[in-house]
Structure to design on (591 residues):
């Protein structure tokens, strides 16, 4: 009786929570194909909102701006995050280490409103003293990179902690130069984490509206800013069409990425097996 | 053993680049924030006055910006201002969100952790997938679902639960639904990571020794997952306090949270000193729970020794 209850209750709970998580996505996909500007009743299948999407210059321009901002800040975040992870994992002792680790981690817990506000004050100050930078794409990139590198650091750091140092030491004992050790052993070992860090900071940037609202100049609007503007006004199924395309893209990227990881893992296992076999054959065991 | 795999100039470069970046884009802005919170409000061209008195050359710190947060008007009662209300409201909603996430997420994470290892990656991936699609769009969709003429109200009417639409949107209900929805993965993932490591044989042992399932859960599972509960709670609670987007899309007009207040002081009232003072107090509010958290995790680390 107990097992029966637990089994079914657990399945029911899982199903309900997954329904909760996916309800908005299903809702947007369904109503992006609706023939009228209706939010509750499906009146017929139509692609008119997708057609409206291609003509909506604000959304299209916002998309390209977001893509540029997210790519640049994603790359910068991955780079600075990797550097920071190295500093925290490998350089245990140097002046100002406590301050450094505090500063890297702080954006993880600071409200975005505070980050946006303080960066805006910096940009206004710099504009007054140096005449640069003008608020716009560049300032949004700065803001998103500050946020993204904190997350990138966490991702790379956890991988770097798992790296087996003895392999690096063995390479050095065998006469490899430090940069050879880094590029031939350390980097390949943590490359997947750096890629994940890039994807994470890319997504954070592509999703952020608060920091962008503080740091963007007049006429410069990222996609989330455009959506935020529309969302406050009322129903607009064009947004659902954009959402559906985004959901499709993300699903394909994630499924593709996991297939790639699975294939890589399998390939590595095959190579290890082949190498072991070859060695055993050479030793005359097999 | 070599302290690093890089030669000295490389080491300086690797430390220097992120260090300089953080000083320019994190430390300096924070100093400016602090500075403006202690000066007088200016005019349209210069939103704040310099901290040096130009006649006497003396430093004058203005605490007025902070006092005005807590004191209403001349001689008015302390701690009954709109600002204090907004802070308390933000803390209250953050607490409700964290508790709701815990109530929904704990059984959820527990059942995933107890499912067979072959389906676990897929179940976890399904938690993460919505997380990778725009959170703004997902919150926006809740507007359509919860509207008076929305899908949920129509379903409730069709099922005969109610004869006319219930006001859900722009209430506490819609806001808490949105907050719980967005922050649920932040609760589930640390809880799962903690629960999956648990030795479930301990539950069997408790059962063999005569504990009821509920008693075993309460006396064995919950204490063992304390670290996961605290981590999940903090991961939800801290960002919830400063949440800006969800309240402005789903919350009622009277439920203004502190993030919104900072924004309005900055851009509507143009009162930069007050906006920055409000932001500084907001950081202080977050530092306190964090300090408690680190104190607790420190305890846990001590206990594990």
């Amino acid at each position: 009786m107990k097992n029966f209850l637990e089994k079914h209750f657990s399945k029911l709970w899982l199903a309900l929570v997954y329904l909760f998580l996916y309800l908005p996505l299903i809702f947007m996909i369904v109503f992006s194909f609706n023939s009228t500007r209706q939010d509750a009743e499906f009146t017929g299948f139509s692609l008119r909102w997708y057609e409206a999407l291609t003509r909506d210059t604000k959304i299209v321009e916002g998309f390209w701006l977001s893509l540029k901002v997210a790519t640049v800040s994603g790359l910068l975040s991955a780079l600075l995050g990797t550097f920071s992870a190295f500093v925290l994992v490998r350089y245990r002792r140097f002046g100002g280490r406590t301050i450094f680790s505090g500063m890297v981690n702080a954006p993880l817990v600071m409200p975005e409103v505070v980050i946006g506000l303080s960066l805006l004050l910096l940009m206004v100050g710099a504009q007054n003293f140096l005449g640069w930078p003008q608020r716009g794409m560049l300032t949004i990139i700065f803001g998103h990179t500050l946020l993204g590198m904190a997350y990138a650091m966490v991702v790379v750091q956890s991988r770097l902690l798992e790296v087996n140092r003895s392999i690096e030491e063995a390479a050095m004992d065998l006469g490899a130069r430090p940069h050879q050790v880094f590029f031939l052993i350390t980097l390949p070992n943590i490359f997947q984490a750096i890629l994940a860090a890039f994807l994470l900071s890319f997504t954070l940037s592509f999703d952020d509206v608060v920091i962008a609202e503080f740091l963007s100049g007049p006429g410069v609007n990222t996609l989330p800013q455009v959506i935020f503007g529309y969302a406050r006004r009322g129903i607009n199924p064009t947004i659902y069409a954009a959402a559906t395309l985004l959901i499709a893209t993300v699903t394909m990227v994630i499924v593709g990425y996991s297939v790639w990881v699975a294939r890589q893992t399998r390939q590595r296992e095959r190579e290890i097996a082949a190498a072991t076999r070859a060695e055993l054959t050479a030793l005359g065991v097999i | 053993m070599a302290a690093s795999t890089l030669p000295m100039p490389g080491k300086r470069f690797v430390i220097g680049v992120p260090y300089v970046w953080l000083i320019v884009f994190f430390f300096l802005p924070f100093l400016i924030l602090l500075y403006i919170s202690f000066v007088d409000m200016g005019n349209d061209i210069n939103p704040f006055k310099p901290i040096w008195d130009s006649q006497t050359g003396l430093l004058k710190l203005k605490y007025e910006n902070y006092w005005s947060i807590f004191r209403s008007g001349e001689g008015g009662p302390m701690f009954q201002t709109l600002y204090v209300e907004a802070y308390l409201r933000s803390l209250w909603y953050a607490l409700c969100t964290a508790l709701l996430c815990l109530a929904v997420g704990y059984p959820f994470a527990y059942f995933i952790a107890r499912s067979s290892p072959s389906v676990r990656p897929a179940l976890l991936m399904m938690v993460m997938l919505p997380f990778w699609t725009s959170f703004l769009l997902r919150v926006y969709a809740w507007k359509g679902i919860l509207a008076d003429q929305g899908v949920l109200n129509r379903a409730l009417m069709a099922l005969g639960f109610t004869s006319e639409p219930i006001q859900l949107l722009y209430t506490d209900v819609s806001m808490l639904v949105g907050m719980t929805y967005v922050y649920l993965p932040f609760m589930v993932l640390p809880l799962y990571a903690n629960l999956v490591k648990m030795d479930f044989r301990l539950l069997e042992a408790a059962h063999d020794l005569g504990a009821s399932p509920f008693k075993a859960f309460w006396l064995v599972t919950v204490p063992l997952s304390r670290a996961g509960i605290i981590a999940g709670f903090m991961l939800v609670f801290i960002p919830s306090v400063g949440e800006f987007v969800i309240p402005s899309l789903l919350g009622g007009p009277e439920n203004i949270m502190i993030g919104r207040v900072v924004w309005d002081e900055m851009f509507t009232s143009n009162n930069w000193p007050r906006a920055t003072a409000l932001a500084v107090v907001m950081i202080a509010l977050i530092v306190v729970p964090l300090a408690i958290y680190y104190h607790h995790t420190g305890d846990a680390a001590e206990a594990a020794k």
Notes: The mean pLDDT of chain B is 85. The two ends of chain B are 27 Å apart (CA to CA).
